[in-house]
Design a protein that fits this description.
By secondary structure, this protein is α+β, with helices and mostly antiparallel strands. 34% of the residues lie in helices and 26% in strands. It folds into 2 domains: 135 residues, 60s Ribosomal Protein L30, Chain: A, CATH 3.30.1330; 157 residues, Phosphoribosyl-aminoimidazole Synthetase, Chain A, domain 2. Helix 2 packs parallel to helix 3 and helix 4 crosses helix 5.
């Protein structure tokens, strides 16, 4: 099977056919109908074998995660995902692997009504690059730069489980047998907070998705907004599995620096707190207040109302090992 046969066999058969896609896979470019009074948000993420996922990760999980991490960026802007393009580099053509990979891609695309509209296939070491695009009412997008001193700091869901799964894979921690599968699923099948993002665009002052670690990603908000923050460590939402698997100090360090959570971290003014909490409750999303924004331009942490020192080691490409 050659390149164009591969594309036709694996990537043209999808259930999502959007009316705004005038020309999809099969031409030099995709053609999308413009939408009045809507802004388009665009993001690109690359996953490289052995860097962004362990080499033994299943093809279905790789397909799911490649889409999910991009939709998480769309969610952080408050937008509705609409289209993706896929560039995949493969060492060789493995029909069974590609079938499972596409199942992971298209399952998430179908759930969010996202159409695959094009891309590229090449031969080489395994890597997947997805460009995702979404729509948002004009001028309503969220960014990292709107946080203000006095805003409250919130996070959706629970954090730290994906990093715990990586520690288990790397034999840095031993988990109880009943814990392994649910923790592994947190790493392999992250859930982009698309509905939460759309609900938050009416209330949040700033937002980001947690990919590189809570501290690192909060640092991006603080830098973009020219503010500081205090995190209340005993308020950070940890799963029961994480609490049962590690000492509290180790669990908190993992939640602060681990990454791969793909939850939303956002800031809310005092006036918008009740409206935001109601909006997220209506879409079934748990959120937790974990601190407050201040004017110090530094990030501090407290535990039991006492300041404690922290160190940040969130993931960053090309950083020294």
């Amino acid at each position: 099977m050659k390149e164009f046969e591969l594309i036709k066999h694996f990537f043209t058969e999808q259930n999502v056919k959007r009316k705004d896609v005038l020309q999809g896979i099969g031409d030099d470019c995709a053609v999308i109908a413009s939408t009045e009074n809507q802004n388009i948000v665009v993001t690109t993420d690359t996953l490289v074998a052995g860097v962004h996922f362990p080499l033994e990760t299943s093809a279905r999980a790789i397909g799911h995660k490649a889409v999910a991490v991009n939709l998480s960026d769309i969610a952080a802007m408050g937008a509705k995902p609409s289209w993706i393009s896929l560039a995949i580099t493969l060492p060789d053509i493995d029909n069974a692997w590609l079938t499972e990979f596409c199942a992971g891609v298209f399952e998430l695309c179908e759930y969010y009504n996202v159409e695959l509209i094009g891309g590229d296939t090449t031969q080489g070491p395994l890597s997947i690059t997805i460009t995702a695009q979404g729509l948002i009412p004009e001028g309503k997008y969220l960014s990292r730069s709107g946080a203000k001193a006095g805003d409250w700091l919130y996070v959706t869901g629970e954090i730290g489980d994906a990093a715990l799964a990586l520690q288990h894979i790397n034999n840095e921690v031993t988990l109880e047998q009943d814990f392994i599968e649910p923790i592994q699923n947190k790493l392999d099948y992250p859930k982009p907070r698309v509905l939460a993002g759309q609900a938050l665009r009416e209330y949040a002052s700033a937002a980001i998705d947690i990919s590189d670690g809570l501290l690192a990603d909060l640092g991006h908000i603080c830098q973009a907004s020219n503010v500081g923050a205090n995190i209340v460590l005993d308020a950070i939402p940890l799963s029961q599995i994480l609490r049962d698997s590690l000492f509290f100090d180790d669990a908190i360090k993992l939640a602060l620096n681990g990454g791969d959570d793909y939850e939303l971290l956002f800031t809310i003014s005092e006036d918008n707190k009740v409206g935001m909490e109601t909006a997220l409750t209506n879409v079934g999303i748990q959120c937790t207040c974990i601190g407050q924004i201040n004017a110090t331009q530094t990030i501090s942490t407290t535990l039991n109302n006492k300041p404690v020192p922290i160190s940040s080691s969130g993931f960053e490409h090309f950083s020294e090992k």
